[in-house]
Design goal:
Bound molecules: zinc ion
Number of strands: 16
Largest sheet: 7 strands, mixed
CATH topology of the largest domain: Metallo-beta-lactamase, Chain A
Strand content: 15-25%
Order of helices and strands: EEEHEHHEHEEEEHHEEEHEHHEHEE
Distance between the termini: 19 Å
CATH superfamily of the largest domain: Ribonuclease Z/Hydroxyacylglutathione hydrolase-like
CATH architecture of the largest domain: 4-Layer Sandwich
Number of domains: 2
Helix content: 10-25%
Number of helices: 10
Structural class: alpha/beta
């Protein structure tokens, strides 16, 4: 799993931050969370391709989260996309998409299938599932928790050697779940593989006040991307406008026992995000401030020993 931050600013773009969009690459699939204006151009500066986007999840219908859709769809069409695109969002997403597709002189060269989601929905694909959580903003707004499907258990090399399995294609066959035969003996995958390993878990809050429901859904995520519009001195404004302070995001991350927290949806008032980082790290040390075009791999190998997971 690779996470690519395309836009990390809140409400309006600034010279340092475009408005919200975060891509998650799973194999050759790209899943996009929110699509603020200019997202298709941000893709061009990044390691991810907008032509590989298979699904887009929109958290809510404030402009900084969806106004990039018409331009992204038109750019995909100009680039010859034929594959269907699925767009998911809060109630009103489908009617908004009808307006988007009717803008100006444009006919999409591919089909856009739009679905309105609500709390508790789960979008299932072969490689992952996305759980939908209603969060607490000034308008209907959704947080999303993506979980990869479970992976085969760890391959026990010593055990395989003991059983006389020669290294090479037969190792691969066992790892793919096939039983093999060696000198008349049947060797099944369960003899050399550990218990199945869970898939990676990625949670993204959208715009919200601290949400208990989202905290529960994000439990033990490998990566939590949480909005952190302002610092604690502006907590009254944060509450009024349906946002979270950096400290509150860190408290949520700590309570949810996540592995790492990335703050995004940073207000354009912060030319330097250090105050946000400082107050969050005082509560939850594994905190980072997301920057535009920052990307990183979430490595499955280093989560073998993660303890305390209950999902
Ligand atoms: Zn916003
Ligand atoms: Zn909003």
């Amino acid at each position: 799993m690779r996470v690519v931050f395309l836009g990390t600013g809140g409400s309006l773009p600034s010279p340092k931050r475009n408005v919200t969009a975060v891509a998650v690459q799973l194999g050759s699939d790209v899943i996009l969370f929110d699509c603020g204006e200019g997202t298709q151009r941000q893709f061009m500066f990044s390691s991810a391709s907008f032509m590989k986007v298979s699904a887009i999840f929109i958290s809510h219908l404030h402009g900084d989260h969806f106004l990039g859709l018409p331009a992204l769809i038109q750019s995909m069409s100009f680039n010859g996309r034929e594959k269907q695109l699925r767009v998911f969002g809060p109630p009103g997403m489908s009617s908004t998409m009808r307006s988007i597709l009717g803008l100006g002189y444009f006919t999409s060269g591919f089909e856009v299938v739009t679905s309105d989601l609500e709390d508790g929905d789960v979008v299932r694909e072969a490689e992952y599932a996305v759980k939908v959580v209603a969060v607490e903003h000034t308008v209907p707004s959704l947080g999303f928790v993506l979980e990869g499907t479970s992976r085969p258990g760890r391959f026990n090399l010593e055990k395989a050697k003991e059983l006389g399995v020669p290294s090479g294609p037969l190792f691969g066959a066992l790892q793919e779940g096939r039983t093999i035969e060696i000198d008349g003996r049947m060797i099944s995958p369960s003899m050399v593989l550990g218990p199945p390993r869970r898939g990676l878990k990625f949670a993204i809050s959208g715009d919200t006040r601290p949400s208990q429901r989202f905290e529960e859904a994000a439990h033990c995520s490998d990566v939590l991307v949480h909005e952190s519009t302002v610092t604690s001195d502006l907590i009254v404004d944060a509450r009024e406008y349906g946002h979270t302070t950096a400290r509150q995001a860190a408290e949520l991350a700590r309570n949810a026992k996540v592995r790492s927290l990335y703050l995004y949806h940073i207000s354009s008032r912060y030319d330097d995000p250090q105050p946000l980082l400082d107050e969050a790290r005082a509560v939850f040390p594994a905190t980072y401030v997301a920057e535009d075009l920052m990307s990183f791999d979430v490595n499955g190998a280093d989560i073998e020993d993660t303890e305390g997971r209950s999902e």
